[in-house]
Write a structure and sequence with these properties.
Largest sheet: 6 strands, mixed
Helix content: 25-40%
Number of strands: 11
Strand order of the largest sheet: 7-8-9-3-10-11
C-alpha cells in the first residue's frame, strides 16, 4: 500500500505545494485553518483543482498533468469521510451504508452492508434514520459507508470535530480497532485536536500556508518543533500539564 502526492496548485490568494509519500500508516495533517490540509484530501479524491504534478496510489496514476491523466473520483478507490458526514437524512442507516456500494451486485451489497453493520456495532440501528441515532453512531455509519467498496486509502476530514470529549474518545478507539486493524489501508486524518494527533498518528505532517514545514513522528514533532509556529501548535504542556507525552 503506497500513496504518493506531488502537487502544485495555484488559486487566487493561495497556493498548495506539497510532495510526500505514505505507506500503510495513519498520517495526520496538522496545522492552522486555511493551511491546505482539507484541500490536500480533496485533491487526492479528485474533487479539487489538481494543478501541476501527479498523484499515484499503489502504482496507479490517479492524476498526472504531463500524461494528461485525471481519473474521476469514483475511479480513484478512495474512501472519504467529510466533516459534516454527508449522511442522507431520508435514508435509513442501512441504506446510507448501501449507498457506498453503487455498481455492486445487490445481493452481494446487502451481505457486505450487514457485515459492516456488525463490524461497526450498527446492526440494531439498521432501520433508523440519521436524526434517530447518536453522534457517535452517525460517525460509524459514515465510516462504514466509506469502507464499503474496499478503498485503497481512507481520507478523514475532521470527522470528530462536532463530538463531545467522550464520543471523540470512542471514535478514536473505533479508528484504531476497526479501521487500522481490520482494513490495513493507509489513512489520512485532518484534525486540530492535539491529543488526537499524539494518540493516533504514526506520522504527523505539519502544514503552513500550503507547505509542509515538518514531518516526523508525533514524539519528534512535539518535542522538537522546527519553528515558533509549530511550537504554538504543539504547546501541550501548557494545555495538558498532567499528561505525559512520551
Amino acid at each position: 500500500m503506497d500513496l504518493e502526492i506531488n502537487i502544485k496548485t495555484e488559486l487566487p490568494g493561495f497556493s498548495l505545494d506539497v510532495n510526500w509519500r505514505m505507506q500503510r500508516e495513519l498520517v495526520v495533517l496538522f496545522g492552522h485553518s486555511g493551511a491546505g490540509k482539507s484541500m490536500t484530501l480533496r485533491t487526492i479524491a479528485g474533487i479539487a483543482p489538481q494543478g501541476d504534478g501527479h498523484i499515484r496510489l499503489n502504482g496507479r496514476l490517479l492524476y498526472s498533468k504531463d500524461m494528461k491523466i485525471n481519473l474521476p473520483p469514483q475511479q480513484r478507490s478512495v474512501g472519504y469521510v467529510f466533516q459534516d458526514l454527508a449522511l442522507f437524512p431520508h435514508m435509513t442507516v442501512e441504506k446510507n451504508i448501501l449507498f457506498g456500494t453503487r455498481g455492486i451486485d445487490s445481493r452481494e451489497a446487502r451481505k457486505k452492508a450487514m457485515d459492516m453493520m456488525e463490524l461497526f456495532c450498527l446492526a440494531e440501528y439498521r432501520g433508523r434514520y440519521p436524526h434517530e441515532i447518536s453522534g457517535g453512531q452517525k460517525q460509524r455509519v459514515a465510516l462504514a459507508r466509506a469502507l464499503m467498496r474496499n478503498p485503497e486509502v481512507l481520507l478523514l476530514d475532521e470527522p470528530f470535530s462536532s463530538l463531545d470529549d467522550q464520543l471523540r474518545l470512542e471514535m478514536r478507539r473505533c479508528l484504531v480497532n476497526v479501521v487500522k486493524r481490520e482494513f490495513h489501508i493507509p489513512a489520512i486524518l485532518v484534525t486540530h485536536n492535539v491529543l488526537e494527533v499524539f494518540s493516533l498518528a504514526d506520522r504527523v505532517m505539519v502544514y503552513s500556508r500550503g507547505r509542509i514545514v515538518q514531518c516526523d513522528t508525533p514524539q519528534a514533532v512535539f518535542n522538537n518543533p522546527v519553528n515558533e509556529e509549530v511550537m504554538s501548535l504543539v504547546s501541550l504542556k501548557k494545555l495538558y500539564p498532567d499528561y505525559l507525552f512520551t
